[in-house]
Design brief:
This protein has about 210 residues and is an alpha/beta fold. The chain has 6 helices and 7 strands, in the order αβαββαβαβαββα. Strands 1-3-6-2-7-4-5 form a 7-stranded mixed beta sheet, sandwiched between helices. It is globular and about 85 Å long. The termini are far apart.
Length: about 210
Amino acid sequence: MCHFGLYKDKRYNNKTDKNGSYKMKTITLLFTGAMLIATTMITFSNKVNANETLQENWRAELARSLPVLGHRNFIVIADSAYPQQSNPGIKTIYTGETQIAVVKEVLAAVEKAPHVNGTIYVDKELTFVAEKNAKGINDYRKVLDKVLAGKDIQRLPHMDIIKKLDASSDLFNVVILKTDLTLPYTSVFVELGAGYWNSKAEAELRESMK
């Protein structure tokens, strides 16, 4: 009986050891899998948010950014196909809203800010885009013209504006607010200037220094 009992205990212990080992392996695999998933999610999140802010934050981000933006900084209200830039000085924010609505809010914010004003650039090509090639472009132009009425606007070829933007982004930050608009040549570029100084005053200053 004694030997039988020992044999039985040994078998029981072996079974227990195997079950325990199996459970430990299972726990280890589950933990490793969870860590891999968490690491992947963090990495993906970092890539997405490297220079892109989620849509619910765009107003707060604009409010935070505007006080530190100034002369030669750009704010771009872009159509949906506008590319995300690799330049770290360019911050892209997806708004998830209509372009006209974002244009209105940005211009209102710039006008309200005491330290800056804005020169607005629109693509010269926009005037010549045919309705047959971009359905809805005629209505868009009418609405945009009303929004920009009385503003300092310059209409330049698209690539000329992009060159100005690229030159500025080498030294100065640029904020791009992407919208859901799907019409070509509709991005609105706002180049900030000093709100308490203007070109006439600058010219008089330079003349007096001669």
